[in-house]
Amino acid sequence: MKRVVMVLIVIVAVVIVVTAFYRGWVGMTSDSGDQKSNVTFSLDADKFQADRKTAMAGAQDLGRQIKDKISGPSAKSMEGKVVNVAGDQLTMTNAEGKEHSHALAANVKITCDGRDCMAADLKAGMRIRVTTDDAAPHAASRIEALDKDAAFASRSHDGKVVSITGEKLVMTNGDGKEEQTCTLTAGVKVTCDGEVCKTADLKPGMRIRVTSDGADARAATRIEALDKNPDFAKVG
Question: Same domain for 119 and 172?
Fold first, then answer.
């Protein structure tokens, strides 16, 4: 074991010495006289400090890039009302009535009362929530418009379970005619007849109410399932 440690120490020392000479931190001069050779080593402190700062800056920049890739661009939202949509520009008022303009991103996602729609469907006076990313703070990446729904904070959909696969819940609407897919959030709360249960307990045909709190109307934060209870009103 000691021999292995000594070998590692020697290798590290050799690497340090080679790097020092390669980077120019250490210089060596020699002269001979009186049949003797003299070797002189010198340290370039300025060169060493400059390289150290460059390396630290590079490491910090790399760290920021890795962090950005992991976390992705952060999103910011603004609520208000539509003034008009002209070409790829949306003008809206904020909560205080001040006007703001947003460019529509090429892949902007637009919903009207939780359903996919187009920019042409956004009418003056509609309540909207515009979401932008830090990467393009003036470009709308998502627009949620409300025409009939009363508020953005909470949306509920009643229907029946069709299937659950991984993080995806497929359900019918209240009429049982159309299917829609919801994403289960990490902290989704699930109850069956008012009792806490798991997504695995949700069986095809069960009546459910899916609630979405927040920006994404398709992200389920709460699922209330009924098996014996005749109506949703009694489910807390």
Answer: no
